[in-house]
């Protein structure tokens, strides 16, 4: 390209010499001709010079365009190099994160294997559903001797009470219960016995998933946890031992319990459950723990998955039920019902992020939330309705920020604008709450410094600190006899002696009254708060 440009430039430079040669030839022709040709030569010369100028101008334009193209090409190459370097850096970072996760997973597996190998009942075998003890109990289970005794005695009622009393140590209990189950004659039967109180016989199931009854809610949570602990124990057994625990009689009984629970789930509303139904979770966990999934229709189970999608165990529960291949349909149902956060969590859990891009789903979720709030918010919205809309927006923003942080999406979806909006809403909420709170009455304090006397001999003082005694709030005013008030003029205008100064005292009845301050102003106590 550069050689062509140089050849064109050299040709253009030689045009002047060519014109001069042409002029000489034209002069010789004119000398041999009888007619003068001066006028025609000038026209030809102007024509050739015009062509020369036009060619040079066009040539310079082409040179400028070529330089501009080369500049753009160089910038594009630099941009490509930068993007290539950025992609390589991201790939390297992703590989490092993946390696860290792999190492942590391997470490967790090795720790679990070590803990299992050092179980309290080592090399135990299960025959006909009974755990045979071949070793002493580890110190970990000795920390809960009562738990071990309850499992050995097959006391499901006592086991429920023990879990309820130790709910603060739920994490450690969940590690110890599978080990303690080995002391039971049949762990599966013990867990089935513990399910009897899930639906009280004397009353119908309470509404709102049992949340109105705290005791029933605690019982159901314990039932779910015991079934999960049984699944942990069963996962550590070989095939023959597993068949001994989950015998046909045990499966038949579990199927009967599940058949009794199934009709009670028909009244559950997916929107009302909000992905956190404890009843649906317990039913699905029962099917998974006792391996009776095949006795129920798959479509009925898929309808229950959105009711438990917000629970921590949802993904593992779906795998245990063999519903992994059906997850795209479940995610579609969640998206159609506006549950984008649950959909993103399941997409990550089952490796469906290419089919369901998480960033697009989260942005769509916030867009729909803002649109619904703006459409449902009239101009004359009451403060209560306005607060409700703001609270919904605040909840949605916090859910999106948490989802982004959990799945490490900060590079693709920066959360700074979302956090800024969260701070604005929380600040407005706090200011409004502060403005609506009734002002607390404050006692008038006397002006000037007042001496403080501490009484450490007060026997009725239970705080352990000395009681501070403030002297009389309004001390007596003493009229001083100043020197400049004497003399003959002032003596002529002498007044009768002044009466003694008046003191401020309170009657015992008034001092004992609780609605009076020390300055004699009455204090109207605010009405007591209203309890729902």
From TrEMBL:
It comes from the Eukaryota. Keywords: Coiled coil, Developmental protein, Differentiation, Flowering. Residues 12-96 form a coiled coil. The keyword Oxidoreductase does not apply. GO terms for biological process: cell differentiation; flower development. The keyword rRNA processing does not apply. Residues 429-466 are annotated as: Disordered. Belongs to the Frigida family. This is FRIGIDA-like protein. It comes from Brassica oleracea var. oleracea. The lineage of its organism: Eukaryota, Viridiplantae, Streptophyta, Embryophyta, Tracheophyta.
